[in-house]
Each structure stands twice: as structure tokens, then as C-alpha cells.
Amino acid sequence: MNKELNAKLAGYCGKPIDEASKEEIYLALLAMAQEMSEQKKEKTTGRKLYYISAEFLIGKLLSNNLINLGIYEDVRELLEKAGKSLADIEELEPEPSLGNGGLGRLAACFLDSLATLKLPGDGVGLRYHCGLFRQNFKDGLQNETPDYWITGNDWVKPTETVYPVTLAGRTYPVRLYELAVTGYEGRTNSLNLFDLDSIDEQIITNGIHFDKADIAKNLTLFLYPDDSDDAGRILRIYQQYLMVSAGAQLILEECVGRGCHYHDLAAYAAVQINDTHPSLIIPELIRLLTEKGITFDEAVQIVTDTCAYTNHTILAEALEKWPRSFLEQVVPQLLPIIEKLDVLARTRSKNASTAIIDSKGYVHMAHMDIHFTHSVNGVAALHTQILKNSELADFYRLYPEKFNNKTNGITFRRWLLACNRSLAAEIEKLIGGGFKKDADELEKLLAFADDASVLEKFSEIKADNKKALADWLYRKQGVKINPEAMFSIQAKRLHEYKRQQLNLLFLIHQFLEIRSGHRPATPIVSIFGAKAAPAYTIAKDIIHALLALSQVIGADPEAAAYMQIVFVENYNVAAAEKMIPACDLSEQISLASKEASGTGNMKFMLNGAVTLGTMDGANVEIAQRVGSTNIYIFGQNSRQVIERYRKNDYHAADWYDSDPNLKRAIDFLISPEMLAAGREEHLSRLRNELIHKDWFQTLPDFNSYVVRKQQAMADYAYNKKEWAKKGFVNIAKAGFFSSDRTIREYNEKIWHLG
Ligand code: 26Q
Question: Do 270 and 306 form a contact (C-beta atoms < 8 A)?
Fold first, then answer.
């Protein structure tokens, strides 16, 4: 095999491997993997899934594809023999950051599982020229620059297929690009991404600004990090319609090509709508079907039978609603259809809360989805419960049969086999390789949970990963961290509901405790990775406060011996792959009821970290599986939180006034030391926000957070073996959180593919 592969790769290089440069080898591997993936394409029969999503946070693909093609080890070895390092070559690959966070990464994990399970399922989305902005810190503030990832030698390839899409009365040719998604010992599916040839990267000026009016040049230039102004919001509708119109044409063309008659669309296609960003596919499919001569009523039925909707959030501000005037401007061809759907919805329920177009003229995307798809799912058990009982209760009464839960999952190929090879190898030694395709087999590890030598080995792997992270941080950011300390990691988008500010208050408290002579049980390195939406002021203030605090601690040798804060710049998939295997304590501290699921929590667990978390999202299901000795739960539960919101009687100032520790920590934000390290504008705004608003109830959870975290630190410090066992049990119990399981459930209950 090795010899054959060697010859093959040298063939792609056009020279012997030891004479080729890293760039040449990278391109050769890319070409070879693409050709091998191509050979695994299969003819589709029966029902095929189209997972339509504004985001696919695919990350780098080289190692992933080599693993899935079964040649990673062989390639690594033969490169090593030629004096080259595969790890160095991987560094050359740019990361396509075509997603904001969880929702986009979930879509990418799902594609991997679909192909691994040999299910016919393609992605449909947009080929943004710049992914989520690149983040760097200057003077303690986040700066944003464009993140170009397209080089001309990419995994994503242009095709000859072009669809016409009419936006604001003008028709644009939309090109289809394809990415081969190859499963682990599976089949190859496609990620179909649409783009305009006329996009012009030259129109970007200072940072990430550009002329928002010039549609032909800007439409797919950026992935949207927020919707802070109207010009931006309209552009998002343009993007969404470009995606769904080209997507709908692709779907109909493929199905007809396979012998489908328009009446039978639902027998050929299942369309999964990933949150509300692709919801316009509903009126668009109805429009196209009626153009083909199908009656409106039948078209509505066909589309309902074909489409299903996933909800990923219960934050009111993230539920998309568009002023009718925006839609009139961008997609006048859809408005008559949306209006008819609204009329139809109103015949089903007189309740104003379930209308599609409200009295102020806003079009509610989620409402259209729920009325006109056959399945509505939440992404974790608690989330689905909350949708049924509160957020979408009126809809649940109307359509109880549509509601179902599909707890999220992650692909173990990327999040274990690729990012933590030594752990995967050790697991394989103990229980064989079956877990790679049947994640439940990880439970076999439980037989070793009390085996001292096994736990010892797992602790060594963790220690090595921590050293590797420390080296990486030093190379990347020039910071030195103590690998002997406990690594606590909070890595996720910066958002008030995720409560990085709670972690901040803990760190201030810990710092002040050290100053007053109370040393913690263990030194701790608190590592953060988080991007804030460019217009999200308070989120940026939180980053600022953490960076300032990091300096204040660094300047105090006594405290610095016990604690350190590191903010990883430009957190993305590649960074996650380095950070997650090195984590001891996984911070999942959102306000209960607000985090729909979380998927980072699953990645950390799978890599042997212990969770410190609230009873929120999938943390609840993690806690249920690992048991209370192997997770640190704190804080109010979702019932208490929802009750507090309902009563509307939360006053942060009462908590601030009555808890001296809390008051001391909050006031430290504007202490002379902090003001010397940071800027008053940001620090006092954050302090005011915490005392006078604190919409995400940070203060009521402060005490129990401090207590549980200090308990975790003591357990880590004083009982290494017990601590190792906790992490080990987490790995053993992670099987349920494989996206293979999630995809099987979607297929059995919603899609019925093939
Ligand atoms: C909406 C309107 C205008 C502009 C942007 C948006 C927008 C963009 C992205 C709204 C939401 C998102 C992303 C949401 C998201 O990532 N949700 C996460 O989904 C994960 C997968 O289900 C869950 O695990 C997380 O709990 C959830 O927060």
C-alpha cells in the first residue's frame, strides 16, 4: 500500500516526494484525495436529503478527508520517511470559516455523518468569499479584518451549472460550486454552494466595510456576523433568496432528472431547513411548482410534505422577522404567495400569535416554517420542552404531531480521531476500533474505569495535549502558560447569555482572594476563545475586561503564580482542534433555558474534560449520562429562570447590594489598576450593565459558580486519580453525542431516505 501510495502521490507532485515543497505536496494530496472521493460517489435512488443552511462551518479538510478515505496513517508515514511532516503541510491549508458558530458547525458534522452512514444527503448553501471575520486584539479591543480563504486551489470547485435568480427585478446568473463530502469508509455526497461570478473583493475598504448597495459585486462577499443596520438586513434577504432560489432549482432539476413528477416531489426530496435563514424556500418552491401548472393548494401540500424545520434558538432577538417592505423590495415575486400562506394560516388558527404577517407588517419566518412543514424539531431535550411549553406553545397546541426532539451530535472523526490521535489510539488498544463507527462502543471503556494504569495513561495523554497547546500558544501569540496548572476553557461565541462575564467575575474574585491571602487549591489557566459580533457593544466590553484583567494579574507575581488568563485570538475550528484535547474543565455556563443545546460541551466531554455547567441545553443530557459525581452543576435551573422572567421582578442591584463578594468583584472593574490596564468607557459600561440590567441573570448564579468551581479545583488538586476517572467516564459516556446517532434519528423519524 505504502509503495503504491508513494508512487501515486509522487505522480500528483510530478516529482519524488522528498524533492517536493510543502506547497507542492499539499496540492498533490488535495488532488489525490479529490479523485479518490470522486470514486465514492454513488447513484441516488429514492428519497434524497437537501440540508439547506446559510452556514457550513466545515473547517480545514485535508486531515479529515485523509482519515475518512482511510489513508491518513499511510500518508503520514510516507511523508515522514521523505523527511516531511503532515502536520506542517496541514498548516498551509486556509480554513473556510463559512459559519458563525454552533449552527454552522452542526451542519458540517451532519454532512460527515450522512456520508459515513451512506445516506443520500447533500448540503445547499452559499460560497461566501470571506468567512466570519478574522479577529485580532489591539489595545485590548477586538478588530475585524476580512478572512479570505479562496486561493484558486480549493476543495470547493466551480461547475458549469448556472441558475437564473431574480432579485429586485434583475436576473443574475448564479453558479453552482461543489465540495465532495466523503464519509468515513462511506460514500461521497456534495455540498452545493452558490455564488455570483461578478463578486468583487476590491470593494472592501478599511476592515470589513463595503458598499452595501452594489448587489452584483457584494452579494456573497461576507458571511453575516450580525444584522445591526438596515442595509445589512436587506442584504441578508438578498443572500437568503439567492440561496433558496438556486437551491430550489437544483432540487427540482435533480428530482426530475431521476424521473420524479412534480406531484411526487416529496417521494424524491426531503428538505431540512436549518433555522429560519433558508425559510424562503417554502414560498419559492410553491412559486416554482405553480409555474409548472400545479394548483396552489396542491403545491402547499407538496412543500409541506417535503420540508422540515429545525429551530436552534429561543432568544427572541434571533428569531427572524422581516418588514414586508423589505421583502417587497427584494423578492416581489414571493409576496403574493406569502400573503396567501398568511391567509391560509389564519384559517387554521384565529390566534394572532401564530400569524405569519403580524399587525405591524412583519413577516415571521419561523411561523411560516411551522405552518408549512411537516416537522418542527428542537436540538436538545430541554430545548424542545421549552419550545413546546412556552416559546411555541400556541403552535404546539395547533400541531402537536409536528413537534419532535433531535438532540445534537458531533462527528467523532474530526473531534476525536483527527484532533486527538493519541487518545483515539489508546482507546482502540483497550476496546478495539469499533467505536469509530459505533460510538456506543465507547461504553466498553467503563470496564477500565478503576484500572490505575489505564487512568495513568489517560492522564499522560492529557498532559501531553496540554503541553502541545502551551507550545502552540507560545508560537502563535507569544504567551507562556504553565502546563501543570488546571486548564479551564470557555470557547464559543461571545454572548451575554453564554455568560463569559460570569467567568470574568469569578476570576476577579479569585484574584482578590489571593491578594487577601487565600490561595486556591491549584493554579489555573483560564483560556478563552470567542468572537463578538462587530456591533455587539457589551460583548466587546467583556472581551476588553478580560484582556485588562489578564494584564493586571500578569503584573502581580504572587497572583500570577496561581492564575493566568489567555484569550486565544481568532477562535475558529482549527483553534478548537488544538484547545479541546487539552482541556481539564469545560465551561458551559449559559443561563439555564437559553442555550438551545451547545455542541462544544460534547466535544470537550469526548476528549476527557469534566464539565462545569448549568442545567441548560445538552448539559442536562450529559449530566444524566455521566452522573452527578462526574460533572459540576451549579446555578438556577430553567424553571426558576423562566419564572423570574415571567414575574419580571429581577433587580440585579439587590444582589449587588447584598453580597459583599459580588460587590467587590463588580467594583474592581473600575479599580485604579483595571483603569490603568483598560479603558474606562468599556469597563464602567460593563459594570453598569451588570448592576442595573444583567438581563441574563449572572448575579444570582455567582455564588454557586464560585463554590462549584473551587470544588472542582480542589478535586483536581488533591485527588488526581479520582479526577482522571471523572474525565475517563465522560469519554465512555460520550457515545450518545455522536452525530451518527442524531442523523439516524432524523432519518428514521423525518427523512426516510433512500
Ligand atoms: C439572524 C438574523 C440576522 C443575522 C444573523 C442571524 C443569525 C445568525 C446565526 C442567527 C443565529 C445564528 C446562529 C445560531 C446558532 O449557532 N445557534 C446554535 O445552534 C447550535 C446547534 O444547534 C446549538 O448547539 C446552540 O445552542 C445554538 O446557540
Answer: yes
Nearest atom in ligand 1 to 320's CA: 2
Identify the active-site residue in 603, 625, 708, 741.
603
Report helix angle 660-668 to 500-515, nearest 10. 100
Interior angle at CA 542, CA 470 and CA 598, nearest 5: 70
Alpha carbon 381 to chain centroid, angstroms: 18
- Give me the catalytic one of 492, 540, 682, 725: 492
Cβ(257)–Cβ(249) under 8 Å?
A: no
Cβ proximity of 275 and 313 under 8 Å: yes
Question: What 8-state DSSP symbol labels residue 512?
Answer: H
> How many C-alpha atoms does 642 have within 13 Å on its Cβ side?
17
Catalytic, 492? Answer yes
**280 Cα–ligand 1 center, Å:** 17
Among 287, 436, 498, 708, the active-site one is 498
Q: For position 225, what pLDDT does the model report?
A: 67
The 8-class DSSP code of residue 207 comes to T
Q: Whose CA is nearest to atom 14 of ligand 1?
A: 103
pLDDT in tens, 598-635: 999 999 999 999 999 999 999 999 999 999 999 999 99
**pLDDT, tens only, 244-264:** 999 999 999 999 999 999 999
Would you place residue 665 in the very low, low, confident or very high pLDDT band (cuts 50, 70, 90)? very high
pLDDT at residue 229 in the model? 66
With 60 as the cut, is the pLDDT of residue 422 above it?
yes
CA nearest neighbour of 75 among 10, 153, 19, 14 = 10
Mutating to test ligand 1, I would choose from 109, 223, 313 the residue with most ligand atoms within 8 A of its C-beta, which is 313
Give the gyration radius of the chain's Cα atoms. 26
pLDDT tens sequence across 141-153: 999 999 999 999 9
Which candidate in 407, 599, 614, 742 is catalytic?
A: 599
> How many Å apart are CA 492 and CA 668, to the nearest integer?
25
Q: Is the pLDDT of residue 14 over 80?
A: yes
The question of whether 312 is a catalytic residue gets the answer: yes
Q: Relative to the CA of 617, which ligand 1 atom is closest?
A: 26
> What interhelical angle do 698-718 and 720-732 show, nearest 10?
110
By alpha-carbon position, which residue is closest to atom 11 of ligand 1?
318
pLDDT band at 576 (very low <50, low <70, confident <90, very high): very high
Q: Which amino acid is at 8?
A: K
Ligand 1: nearest atom to the Cα of 276:
1
Its sign, for the CA torsion 318, 228, 538, 572, is positive
Residue 596 CB–ligand 1 contact under 6 Å: yes
Q: Which three cell numbers stand for residue 284?
A: 419559492
Catalytic, 493? Answer: yes
Confidence check: pLDDT of 227 > 60: no
Contacts of 298 (CB under 8 A, 6+ apart): 263, 289
Q: What percent of the chain has pLDDT over 90?
A: 93
Q: Using CB atoms within 10 A of its CB, is residue 46 exposed (0-12), middle (13-18) or buried (19+)?
A: exposed
Mutate which of 227, 228, 310, 312 for ligand 1 pocket (most atoms within 8 A of beta carbon): 312
Residue with C-alpha cell 431574480? Answer: 166
Measured CA to CA, the distance from residue 656 to residue 184 in angstroms comes to 53
Tell me how far the alpha carbon of residue 343 lies from the centroid of ligand 1, in angstroms: 29
Instruction: Please write the tens of the pLDDT for every residue from 189-211.
Output: 999 999 999 999 888 887 778 87
